[in-house]
Amino acid sequence: MEPQTLGRIGTEPGPGPHGDGIAPRTGTLDRADAATGTGPLSRTDPATGSSRAGTAPGTGSLGRTDSATGSSRAGTAPESHAPGRTDALTIAGRTFGSRLILGTGGAANHAQLAEAITASGTELVTVALRRVDAQQGPASEGGQRKYPTGSILDVIEQCGVGILPNTAGCFTAEQAVRTARLAREAFGTDWIKLEVIGDEDTLLPDPVELLDAAETLVGEGFTVLPYTNDDPILARHLETAGCAAVMPLAAPIGTGLGVRNPHNLALICEQAGVPVICDAGIGTASDAALAMELGCSAVLLATAVTRAADPVLMAAAMRDAVTAGRAARLAGRIPKRHLAKASSAFEGMADL
Question: Which positions in this protein are listed as binding 1-deoxy-D-xylulose 5-phosphate (predicted)?
């Protein structure tokens, strides 16, 4: 099924970069390794649908090893922050310039949401199928997508970003699979953020139902990005099942508690062969930066921006925090020490 213009992130069955049986339908890459992001870039612009060849403006050729993934890459960070470098996020062969993914739930109004999306610099936003009318899907007219004016889908389209449907509100694998199928028809994409919740009090993922749903959806050709617990073993099972990424939580949804288990999050990042996207529980910019420093490939957040006192300003702060955290990870922090160590040597000091 050919995806519509919005987002242009649909996929079709085929050999994926991590053996997940999924290959990109649009936004093809000419890379030595689509999983790690090495090699020359050639992709479709998610905002305009135009083909872009070569590296982004200001690209350097650093050719270093990515300390977050262990992969060889051309060195990187958005040119506005570090001229001469680019740092693309690659998921299932699809490349994004921003490592921040924004959720759309909780915004006070659509105008504010649009401003926040723009300020965040994101190229991908999530939308719960239950928040839209599946019967009012996109219609093609002269090559342009048409959504009800003023709807959340219309807002997203006007912002020129991709859409990632999710299965929020599902409590069983059966519900999640059914919702994913509806989302594919409604949005014209095989990409799905998979959420299967255990209960309404904690909103924590149900690992048994989640893995069951993931296996089914991967088998049906979906590009599955599962919201999961910060459990390295479950993350490994989800990757083995063919998920295109794993999305461990920092803390329960909407709590704003930040990264509660940095050790487990780091373990997941170290063992994963697919992108690790920190999802849920981010409260402020320092939380997002920490997640990136621990080795996450990207951060997904919603409430931290949409319910902030100034959502637009917070969106910009999150953009910069993700960039800074990624740069710090690549730079390599100094080891922690028990005792102090002077930055200047004592040798050669004048004998006073």
Answer: 254, 280-281, 302-303
